[in-house]
Amino acid sequence: MKRVYLDNNATTAVRPEVLEAMLPFYREQFGNPSSVHWAGRAVSGAVEKAREQVARMLNCSPAEVVFTASGSEGDNMALKGTVEALKEKGNHIITTAVEHPAVLETCRYLERQGCRVTYLPVDRDGMLDLAELEAAITDRTILISVMWANNETGNLFPIEEIGAIARSHKVRFHTDAVQALGKVPVDVQKANVDLLVISGHKLGAPKGVGAIYIRRGTKMAALIQGGHQERNRRAGTHNVPGIVGLGLACELAGARLEESAARIRGLRNRLEEGIFSRIPEVKLNGHPSQRLPNTLNVSFAYIEGESLLLNFDMKGVAASSGSACTSGSLEPSHVMGAMCVEVTLAHSSTRFSLGPDTTKDEIDYVLEILPPIVQRLREMSPLYNRKEPMSCEECQVIRKVAGTTHE
Amino acid sequence: MYTEKVMDHFSNPRNVGEIENADGVGEVGNASCGDIMKIFLKVENNVIKDVKFKTFGCGAAIATSSMVTEMAIGKTLDEALELSNASVAEALDGLPPAKMHCSNLAADALHEAIKNYREKNK
User: CA dihedral defined by A319, A325, A327, A333, rounded to 10 degrees?
Assistant: First the structure.
């Protein structure tokens, strides 16, 4: 069966050249980079080379890069490390209602520890009101945390403008750039960010490695205590092969960023236009243009996302959904809720995220199999072509607009 | 995550559709997981002659709807009222734990349709 992978925002395949570069560090170059002997020395150079590669990608100095084990760790470190380091200064954090759970859940934890958190709402396109952001800043505000790009919709937030606002109020600025890196230019100087988090497996490096940029002079408490690694900012023996992989993946992604983004954008637009021209009653979730070049999130009215994904899967197509059934929770996506997407449409939200290996043939294959699947599920739906109102109370609740239950 | 039987009923659902001038119609929903199931009945001499369903929901929701229609056809109304969500799940060789309390409403929809039939024929 044909296999089409359109879930690159979930994870990516390790690039073959990245894997090749990593392999020696599982075999002959197995040393601990903290050791002084020959085995350690051979390896510490590789870690520092990777640090330079990451720094070039972000336009910062290598000393400002700290390796982590994941994007979630980086976000935890940015938030908790700031709260502890700046507890004399204040306890207020400003973030958005559409952040990744690594930020949102950490904020909820910090609220239980006595912090105050403002969750900025978004409009129906999923965008922020920057005047509202600026108005939320108080003399107790210690951190603004806004993601560079949203993982579900692909929406790009105006990071440079937010950075300028944060700078003018002398408030620290953190951004989760996990989805942005490798897809759009990420420059910490232009963006005026103080903390920026990346993850390897979203751009062709393996799972289990990431990094956080910490602007020089930014006071931070360490999340993991124990060793002197990463200049006491993050204890733990280096994941040398993973770090080497992350470094090379950054170099490769950086080298052909514009070319690759333009190609992927063309394919994404082909998919988007193809869907809207072939299937009626489809809603775009996210901003029409301020979006990652690889991401398309749409809702097909009257049908539910998991059913759709299972049907795709039977045809070899991998995508993802904001439906409750696929998240493991019983609520549809908080991002769709924050955008006030109607509940049935939120349950139907389907994300296609393209990658460097996506081809035109694959997109055309998806466009070929999609309309009959959607039509079949619609014929099966009690909401499709419905004339009479919903009789049961629960069903009426389902049809109401989401968002009211979310803060 | 789904059993073979669930996937079979999901990919080839039995008795999908509507019955025109149905003798009984039942509709139930679960707001938190966003499933809506609608069941149509044709009843003769207290026996279910035909059942059709329409469902908005995940794989489990569609499979349980399909299964309950298969189980209900030919049963008397009282027998059909004894079908439970649990017995539908069991007939499918089980559902993932998260779906047991969420997308497992098909017997409820059937019961609603029987209730509707009885109210109309009091």
Answer: 90
